[in-house]
Design goal:
The complex is a heterodimer.
Chain A (H helix, E strand, L loop, with lengths): L2 E2 L13 H7 L6 H9 L7 E5 L4 H14 L6 E5 L11 H18 L1 E5 L8 H4 L2 E6 L5 H14 L4 E4 L6 H4 L2 E5 L8 E5 L5 H8 L3 E4 L7 H20 L3 H11 L4 H8 L1 H19 L7 H9 L19 H24 L5 H12 L5 H23 L19 H4 L3 E5 L3 E6 L3 E2 L1 H16 L4 E6 L9 E2 L5 H5 L1 H20 L3 E6 L3 E3 H8 L3 E5 L3 E3 L26 H10 L3 E2 L10 E3 L1 H13 L30 H18 L3 H16 L2 H4 L2 H10 L2
Parallel strand pairs in A: 2-3, 2-5, 3-4, 5-6, 6-7, 8-9, 11-13, 12-14, 13-15, 15-17, 16-18, 17-20
Antiparallel strand pairs in A: 1-10, 7-8, 10-11, 18-19
Helix pairs in contact in A: 1-23, 2-8, 9-10, 9-12, 9-14, 9-15, 11-12, 12-13, 14-16, 18-20, 20-25, 22-24, 24-25
Chain B lengths: L4 E2 L6 E2 L15 H15 L9 E5 L10 H9 L5 E4 L5 H14 L5 E9 L5 E5 L7 E5 H6 L9 H11 L4 H21 L9 E4 L5 E5 L10 H6 L17 E10 H7 L5 E12 L8 H13 L6 E7 L3 H11 L12 H4 L6 H15 L3 E9 L3 E11 L2
Parallel strand pairs in B: 3-4, 3-5, 12-13
Antiparallel strand pairs in B: 1-10, 2-10, 5-10, 6-7, 8-9, 11-14, 13-14
Helix pairs in contact in B: 1-2, 3-12, 5-10, 6-10, 9-10
Classes of the chains: A alpha/beta, B alpha+beta.
Chain lengths: 695, 395
């Protein structure tokens, strides 16, 4: 029997535990089977209709689903009014970039573009056997209901989902699949349905991220994003700060720049959607959601929030410490309050509720992670301070009791979960980049497993929210750019966590399931006794391109696990920043690469102690020799990269030149030293820091 | 006058006035700058810009997109309200305030913003097709050609100062002393922190959003000595480079509203600032510096008040001669006026000059416990303008 720290998110879409993937040696859902269930068998396969297909959502989803369903023979019917501006043709260059000219042509050829008058469906539609309607028409309740009636009258068996960002399923009478911007590439779909459907599981099987949410007015993403936008509007309303500057301080505070996002999406449509969402929420829940006059005006005018190019901002705005604290209250107070409402209504699995802000609304850290860091008293203090600024908001939709229980695993393990079956443990990481939250949660997960006397463990992504592992979250380095001590603290602390994967378990297996494992995430998994990857994964250390010096022991740990003859490959990997495909890395970076099913089975055999045929690369605790030079490097291209290469090479030489027990502190120190250098500050991380923090 | 209108204390602010071509203001659309700056000032004063329902702007030098008038500047403030543009040369800064008072007094508007601004740097050159003229087409550099030639008289501004000095038999020594004293008053006010309550440092951004310059000083103001002033070449009678003002760039803003709204908006609601009276006169050709004194004389006659009733006296004095003439006409010691400096010292961006003077005068009156405030100045066309405001506390 499998025990978990908290419910795995896969269970929320009816796909069981993650541990079962490894036990069964295959994913819990198959695309082919699910396509048959949703669209009918190949012989009589039906089509997916996307109505409002020329709109921003419709066109994006026509591309995203069209590209994924084309190989399975599912025709995409793009339906819209005859006078709707072409939103699909503009997608073609992106398709070519992603799939090449042939792939793009194939995908476009599979899309049938039809027009209708809104009342009468085109007769050709019947020939395409519509099985599924994804409705992406304007947010007008009666229009949507009428639209469903037209389809149901013509195709009584058709399954319908609305992409609405505001109306509950109970109002619409259909299920909801609410996608996130940018619609071509964002994989997250908020799903409202009584129980996980084949369509939802198909989204997962196609590599997308369906996230079940409850059937309330507006969904998690819109409450968070529209709520954050409204918070910025309220600050503007009270203090005059122009929207562009509110954006800059908002980005510094939490990550999103909501006004730029509205303009980027298309202010006319986005302003209306935000207003619509908040208007309905205000009607349901009260003043904390009430749109400001500025939003009303922008909804009516469709005007951008940023000034036009010929009026680029002239007068700067700054905030002193007290002002910035007030800004924080204006911005986070309502967001915390709105989140308390969503918690009260149990709108989603907490990991989902937290992740949606990061994956879809630009939050650097999830809102629940922010609230957890503040603690319940801190959250109440912020909301109370906000109510002093905006007393009307205090009258409703504030649920302080809902933020209790922060010490429970549901709150404590937002990004990292652990399961075990009494013998083998599994740690899943649902965040693509490593940060302080992941580090703390990973430590708690490892504590939980060791407390249960589990000494064999697999460490991997969560097969749901995390579809790749991109490395360390570079926003975590901001303090380290100013203070070397902070760099040492971060690198040293994270390295000690990584070593637990090696030291605390008899057998540990790092499993790379997604497209890539890079940087800090690869450093983390490289500490496992075995490293298994799916054959399509890319592996690399892109730190030099930023440039930073790897601080989680990439400069010596992998070198200690490989023969001298192969160490130049690691040097090349670190100094070039270019990734390698998993099969090319077997024997000197990883231990096995293969198709998903086989890789799952191999990892399970290794972890379970079965016969697996994979030889463990031993760790050398003493000094190891590393070549002082490596040939075939691409040109550095920039002075910062050159400086980064030199610093990384120095770190390799020096940390490999000391025993293992001294290397951790040394490489952390060298990484931290480089972080405060001019080369690092003038690189990608430094520029990002300047842009984000020095506003 | 304008019995319903009030100026809410502490909701005002002015930029510093850097001399022409010395600051980032030489690089900007001054209308946009003024709109954004007023929004910033209101933010610092904790007044939401959305409380404004009308905007009176005043400027004298054409600026890019001027046709679009006050609504455009309001858009740059981030609040789309109607309004209009007015100008009366160097009287603009006071007339705009008075016109706003009228807007409120009639009940047409509730909270009226007054925003005056000008950029003398790189002033535009107008090209005027005039077929009867032998040149056929006349280009005019807006600032310098206007200062240099009054079409009604054929004289330059500076000539009016020389003519006035000669009429009132003013000698060079007195004018130098006036100029030196005004500079000492300015630096004393600056050193005391008084100007920090009036002037707001503003950072100007370039097109990429990076700092272009910080407007945080009245650049161009020099510390003078009597010896230095005496050594200066006389450009006309009693007029030297040290006894006349210099062109500068800047903006100034305040609000005019009803008494009730003033109490809501002001950080000190107990302070009541009312309009009392105004006068505008025109004197003999090319005697502009005596016109303000004549306006004040008329104003006092109209109101029955005397100079002794005034707690604060401030004027726009592009020439030190103006103050010496005022003393002759009104028998009022020039040392008792302009106690925080004047436009003779900190420069003359034209549109906002008298607005800044009004703000400084009201701040000073509050410091002194209230009373009548006299503000006056000269304007192109031999015009003088004067107004009296009354500051009361505990109202």
């Amino acid at each position: 029997m499998t025990t978990g720290m908290r419910q795995p998110t896969l269970q929320t879409i009816g796909l069981g535990n993650v541990l079962d993937l490894f036990k069964n040696g295959r994913p819990p859902a198959d695309v082919g089977e699910l396509v048959d269930r949703v669209f009918g068998p190949a012989a009589g396969r039906g089509a997916m209709v996307i109505s409002g297909a020329n709109g921003i959502v419709g066109a994006g989803k026509t591309m995203q689903l069209g590209s994924r369903l084309e190989p399975y023979g599912v025709r995409i019917v793009a339906l819209d009014f005859p006078n709707a501006p072409d939103g699909i043709g503009g997608q073609y260059p992106g398709l070519v970039q992603a799939f090449g000219p042939d792939g793009a042509a194939r995908i476009m050829a599979n899309i049938v573009r039809l027009t209708y008058d809104g009342k009468h469906l085109p007769p050709e539609l019947a020939n395409l056997k519509p099985r599924f309607l994804l409705e992406a028409i304007p947010e007008i309740l009666e229009v949507k209901r009428a639209h469903y009636r037209v389809f149901r009258e013509a195709f009584s068996e058709i399954e319908i989902r609305s992409v609405t960002s505001g109306f509950p399923s109970a109002e619409l009478g259909v299920g909801i699949a609410h996608p996130a911007f940018p619609h071509e590439i964002n994989k997250v779909w908020e799903i409202v349905e009584p129980k996980p459907s084949a369509f939802t599981q198909l989204l997962w099987a196609l590599g997308l991220i369906p996230v079940p949410v409850s059937d309330h007015w507006s969904f998690v993403l819109d409450v968070l994003f529209c709520g954050f936008t409204l918070a910025g509007l309220r600050y503007h309303h009270a203090r005059n700060m122009p929207y562009w500057k509110v954006d800059k301080f908002a980005r510094k505070l939490a990550g999103p720049n909501p006004f730029r996002a509205h303009d980027a999406i298309g202010a006319k449509g986005a302003n209306f959607l935000t207003w619509s969402c908040l208007h309905h929420l205000a009607e349901q829940y009260g003043e904390v959601f009430r749109p400001t006059p500025e939003l009303e005006a922008h909804k009516d005018s469709g005007q951008d929030w940023y000034p036009p190019n010929h009026f680029r901002p002239l007068v700067n705005w700054s905030l002193d410490d007290d002002d910035e604290e007030e800004f924080r209250t204006w911005l986070l107070g309502p967001v915390y309050q709105m989140t308390s409402l969503m918690l009260h209504e149990k709108r989603a699995h907490l990991a989902h509720l937290n992740a949606i802000g990061e994956l879809c609304a630009q939050f650097r850290r999830g809102v629940l992670a922010l609230m957890r860091e503040a603690g319940p008293d801190g959250v109440v203090e912020t909301v109370t301070a906000y109510h002093r600024l905006h007393p009307a908001a205090a009258k409703s939709a504030w649920h302080p009791k809902a933020i209790g229980g922060m010490d429970t695993p549901d709150w404590q393990q937002l990004y990292v979960n652990a399961e075990h079956d009494g013998t083998v443990g599994l740690v899943t990481i649902s965040r693509e980049s490593y940060n302080r939250d992941v580090d703390a949660e990973l430590n708690r997960a490892l504590d939980w497993l060791t407390a249960a006397r589990i000494d064999r463990v697999i460490v991997t992504g969560d097969f749901h929210l995390s579809t790749q592992m991109v490395g360390a979250d570079t926003a975590e380095f901001y303090p380290a750019l100013e203070r070397e001590e902070d760099g040492e603290r971060i690198a040293g602390g994270w390295s000690r966590t990584a070593r637990r994967l090696h030291d605390d378990f008899a057998v540990s297996v790092g499993f790379i399931a997604g497209k890539r494992a890079l940087g800090g995430m690869l450093e983390l998994l490289a500490h496992c006794h075995f490293l298994v990857a799916v054959e399509g994964a890319s592996l690399g250390f892109p730190e030099v391109t930023l440039p930073v010096v790897p601080g989680m022991e990439a400069c010596h740990w992998p070198f200690r696990r490989v023969g001298e003859a192969d160490r130049h490959k690691l040097v090349h990997l670190l100094l070039s920043g270019r990734p390698v495909r998993a099969p090319e890395a077997v024997g000197w970076l990883i231990d096995y690469a293969g198709p998903l099913d086989e890789a799952l089975g191999t990892a399970w055999k290794i972890a379970g102690g079965g016969k697996h045929g994979v030889t463990q690369r031993k760790l050398v605790a003493g000094k190891v020799q590393v070549p002082a030079d490596v040939s075939g490097l691409p040109p550095a291209g920039a002075p910062e990269t050159d400086a980064g290469r030199k610093a990384i090479m120095e770190c390799i030489q020096r940390s490999c030149g000391v025993p293992l027990d001294e290397a951790l502190a040394l490489q952390a120190k060298l990484s931290a030293e480089f972080m405060v250098s001019d080369a690092c500050r003038s690189g990608v991380v430094g520029a990002d820091y300047q842009r984000t923090v020095n506003v | 006058m304008f019995g319903k209108a009030r100026i809410p204390y502490g909701t005002w602010g002015s930029s510093y006035f850097p001399a022409w071509q010395t600051s980032a203001l030489a690089e900007v659309n001054i209308g946009q700058f003024a709109g954004e700056a007023m929004n910033r000032i209101l933010g610092l004063r904790q007044v939401p810009t959305n409380t404004l329902d009308y905007l009176v702007i005043g400027s004298t030098i054409p600026w890019h997109w001027k046709f679009w008038n006050a609504p455009l500047v309001a858009s740059c403030m981030g609040h789309r309200v109607p309004g209009f543009h007015m100008e009366q040369a160097c009287a603009t800064g006071l007339q705009a305030v008075l016109l706003a008072g009228a807007e409120v007094d009639t009940g047409a508007h509730d909270v009226v913003g007054v925003l005056t601004f000008d950029r003398t740097s790189d002033s535009p050159v107008g090209v005027f097709p005039e077929r009867r003229a032998h040149e056929r087409t006349l280009p005019i550099s807006d600032v310098w050609d206007n200062f240099g030639f009054d079409p009604a008289t054929g004289n330059a501004m500076i000539t009016t100062a020389g003519l006035a000095a000669r009429k009132y038999k003013i000698d060079r020594q007195e004018v130098d002393e006036v100029a030196l004293y005004r500079h000492e008053q300015y630096f004393e006010a600056k050193g005391s922190g008084f100007l920090d309550r009036v002037l707001v440092p503003l950072e100007v951004l370039n097109l990429q959003g990076r700092p272009l310059g910080r407007i945080d000083d009245d650049l161009g103001v020099r510390k003078l000595t009597l010896e230095g002033l005496r050594a200066m070449r006389e450009l006309d009678t009693c007029v030297t480079g040290g006894t006349q003002t210099h062109a500068s760039d800047g903006m100034a803003s305040l609000l005019v509203t009803t008494r009730g709204r003033a109490k809501e908006l002001s950080p000190r609601p107990e302070i009541d600032i009312r309009f009392v009276a105004k006068s505008v006169v025109r004197t003999q050709p090319s005697l502009m510096p005596e016109a303000p004194a004549l306006a004040v004389k008329k104003l006092l006659g109209d109101t029955g008040l005397t100079m002794a009733d005034m707690i604060v006296v401030k004027n726009h004095n592009p020439f030190a001669v103006n103050d010496a003439v005022f003393t002759r006409v009104m028998d009022f010691d020039w040392k008792k006026m302009n106690t925080t400096g004047s436009s003779l010292v900190w420069g003359h961006p034209q549109g906002p000059t008298l607005t800044r003077i009004v703000i400084e005068a009201l701040e000073e009156a509050v410091d002194l416990g209230g009373g009548y405030v006299l503000v006056f100045g000269c304007a192109a066309g031999d015009v003088g303008i004067a107004a009296i405001l009354k500051v009361s506390e505990g109202a």
